[in-house]
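Q: Structure for this?
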Amino acid sequence: MAEKTNTLNSRKLPIAQLISCGDISCELLVDPIPRPAPEPITVRLKPKQSRVVLIDHHKPNSMTILKLTQTILRQRGVEVNDEILVKGDASRPMTAAMLNSLSQEGGLVLCGISD
Amino acid sequence: MAYETLQDIENCMDNGWSDGLPVIPPYGSLVDEMLSAMGWQATDVIGEIADQNIIVRAEKAAATAVMAGCKTQYAPLLRSLSKALLDPKFNLGGVEVTTGGAAVLVIVSGPIVEQLGFEHSANALGANNRANATVGRFAQMMRHFCGSGGGVLTPHGTVGHPGRLSFCIAEHPATEWGPYHTQYGLPATASAVSIMSAEGPNSCNNHYGETGASILDTIGDCMNHYGQTAWYYRSGGFVVVIPPDHMALVKEQFSREQAAQYIYDNARRQTDDLIKAGRIAKDPISYAEVEEHSLRSPLKSLDQLSFIECGAEGGRFSAVIPRWVGSQQVVCMAIEDV
C-alpha cells in the first residue's frame, strides 16, 4: 500500500522579505502578507496537570465524539472534566473571554474534534 | 523579459508569495502606482483581522493587486473590494481555513462593468478576461495572504473548488429586475462590488420548459439535492444566476421578489427523509429549528436568496451557487471615484 503523504506538513512559512537584484542594483519587493503582532499565542505542549478539558466546537458530531472520548479516557484512568464546554459558532474563533479562561488551564485542552 | 524578472517570479513562488500560479513580482515602483490609484498611503490601516492580531495596511492590498495582474484602472473597485474583504462581517479567516472549502465570490454590477471591460455574457462564471480573472484572483489572494495568520494557519478545505483561484462574476449592465446591488439597498444607478463566501456553481439545464415556473422549479430542485450543505444549519443561502433565455420565460410570470417567494415556498424536502439520509442530526441543536414531519426549505429566510442576471444568449441554462454556511452575510459596497 502506498504511503500517505500530506504536503501541508511540509509547508514552510512565507518569507518576510525578498530582494530583486539586477546587474547594477537591488530593490526590495513589497511583502503582501500581513503578520500577527504580537506573535501568535504560544502553546505549551506538555500539560502542567494530568487532566483533560473537552470543548465542543459546534460542528457536526462534535459532542457525540467528545462524550465517547470522555468515557474512554476515564476507562483508561485519565481525569476528564465533567463539563464539556461549548464554542457557540463553528465558523469563528472562540471568544476572547473563553480563550483567556482556557489560557489559565493547566490540563490538556482538546478542541476541533468533529465531522 | 529579463532573466532577473523570471528569477523574481520563481522567488515569490518558492517563498510563499503566491496563490500557486506565477505572480507579477511586487516591485516597489509598481506597488506605489497601485497605491496612488487606490487613493491610499502605504501605511494606511485598511482593516483588521482581530482574532489573528493582524492589522492590514494599504501596501499589502496594493502589492496583492499588482501580483494578481490587476490594472491600475481597477483601483477604485479594488479599494471597495479590499474594504469589503476586511469587513469583520465577512469572516475572512474563516473562509480561508474552513473544511467547507469555500471561495470568495465577487459580484460586480452597474456601469463599471462596461467601463472596466468585464465579461458578463459568454462563460460569465469563468470568463477568460483580464478584469474578471484578475479581480477574482485578487480577492482569493487577499483571502489567502490576510486570512491565514501570516501563513501560520493551515487551510482545511476538504475538497475546495476552482473558485479558490479566481471567482468573479459581472452582471449585465442592463437588467430585467434591476442591478444586483439593489437587493442590498444601493441605488440602481450605482456601481458596486458584492462579496460572499461560496461553494462552486451548479448548472441547471432546462431546454424544454415552457413557463417561468418550470424554470424556477428546475432551479429549486438544483438547490434541493441531498448533498447540498445548507440542510442542517441553513446559515448560508444561494445565488441564482439567470441568463437571458431562461429570464425571457421567468420575467413573464415573476418579479424578482415573486421568484424568491416561489422558490422559498416550493423548493422543499421532507424533513424526515433528510434525517433518514443523515443530512440532519437525529438529536438536532435548537439553532437548526428542525420540525419533524414537515417540509423543510434550505433557506431560513427569503433574504438568503439573491439573483444575478448574466450569461450569454442561445443556451437554456441557469446556475445555482450555494453560499458557505460560516459567513452568513453578503458585504455590498458602492464603488466611488478615487
